[in-house]
Design goal:
alpha+beta; 5 helices; 19% strand; globular; disordered N terminus; 209 residues; seven-stranded antiparallel β-sheet; 7 strands
Length: 209
């Protein structure tokens, strides 16, 4: 009985230490969750401002980002690779790849600047695995848009994949994978990306550019 009594303080100290570690871990997870929720909220509210070119053109003088420079960059991108077609608004370029896949790049924004690259698979081709889809999507970014941004976004996607599943903010309908994460993982808030994979296509959107 005396031996058991002596052990109680040590047991209490060990339990307190475990409790402290659990509290620290929970605090880190809560902070990480808040980061991802911030990023997800931005993507939900922005829609990256792409597809709103007409409204932006009408109020171009009020925009933070130069609308003419965005249109010029898209013209150059469409002309750089054979077969590029620019839409009427001048903010989305499309190509048909040799394997039959369709690549599209949308770029622009007024108060926020964003880029979306999509890869729609040819109807006759089977849906690729997750790793294959990501690899082909990053290759499309490198070929049709920017090697530097392909490396930048690819690094962020790999970092997000290394996180536990609940820390990736991964979700979606059946057959769909959505991963939202920061572009530059760190303790503070940073710009983010959204990766979406379906049986028909792969796409990734990110802020900046």
């Amino acid at each position: 009985m005396r031996i058991a009594a002596r052990r109680r303080p040590a047991l209490r100290l060990a339990a307190a230490a475990r409790g402290g570690r659990m509290t620290t871990t929970c605090a880190r997870l809560r902070h990480r969750s808040r980061q991802l929720l911030q990023i997800a909220a931005i993507f939900a509210g922005l829609g990256f401002c792409i597809g709103q070119a007409s409204a932006q053109a009408a109020a171009a003088d009020d925009c933070t980002f130069d609308q003419q420079a965005q249109t010029q960059r898209m013209r150059e991108a469409a002309a750089r690779m054979r077969g590029g077609r620019l839409d009427a608004d001048g903010n989305t370029a499309t190509w048909r790849a040799r394997n039959g896949d369709t690549v599209s790049v949308a770029y622009g924004g007024c108060a926020d600047l964003g880029t979306t690259v999509s890869l729609r698979y040819a109807m006759a081709r089977r849906a690729p695995s997750t790793s294959e889809a990501i690899g082909r999507l990053l290759a499309a970014i490198e070929t049709y848009w920017s090697p530097a941004e392909a490396a930048y976004v690819g690094k962020a996607i790999r970092a997000a994949q290394d996180q536990p599943m609940q820390d990736q903010a991964a979700h979606g309908e059946a057959g769909t994978v959505v991963i939202v994460g920061p572009l530059e993982p760190g303790p503070g808030f940073s710009f983010g990306f959204e990766l979406r994979l379906t049986p028909e296509q792969a796409s990734v959107s990110w802020q900046g550019g």
